[in-house]
């Protein structure tokens, strides 16, 4: 059940712990737990240009709904996935977590900054930018309705295709 009672107080520390846990799930390749953090209508978006506002009308590196996230995670975990042999390892550093104003749905809006390093085939790749999470409260705790990942170099040249989540 998704709801956000008007009298619920949310602290930065609570949402910060939630976002840190999300990053830990990705680094541990625990995609089942990571997927459980999203609502049934959850989306994950990485725009390809700064200030994009409509993932359905503008080019994106990634714009996944929950069924697409499930399929991508299954491919990432499948031993026979050639694109992930050897597997990509990642390490997240997330900081500058700030609570924003609730959105028009009453969702909790959280802004943060990230530095993600990925290692695969003796190559380190770094991604830097900002996260915007739209969270809802449930009986189980926070859930992600929308996550936006803004890369600082989104409109630059990229020599690899993003295959794993940041």
UniProtKB/TrEMBL annotation:
InterPro entries in the cross-refs: NTF2-like_dom_sf, Rng_hydr_dOase-bsu
Record-stated family: Belongs to the bacterial ring-hydroxylating dioxygenase beta subunit family.
Pfam families (alphabetical): Ring_hydroxyl_B (PF00866)
GO MF terms held by the record: dioxygenase activity
Record protein name field: Benzoate/toluate 1,2-dioxygenase beta subunit
Any one GO biological process: 3-phenylpropionate catabolic process
Keywords carried by this UniProt record: Dioxygenase, Oxidoreductase
Gene3D superfamilies found in the cross-reference section: 3.10.450.50
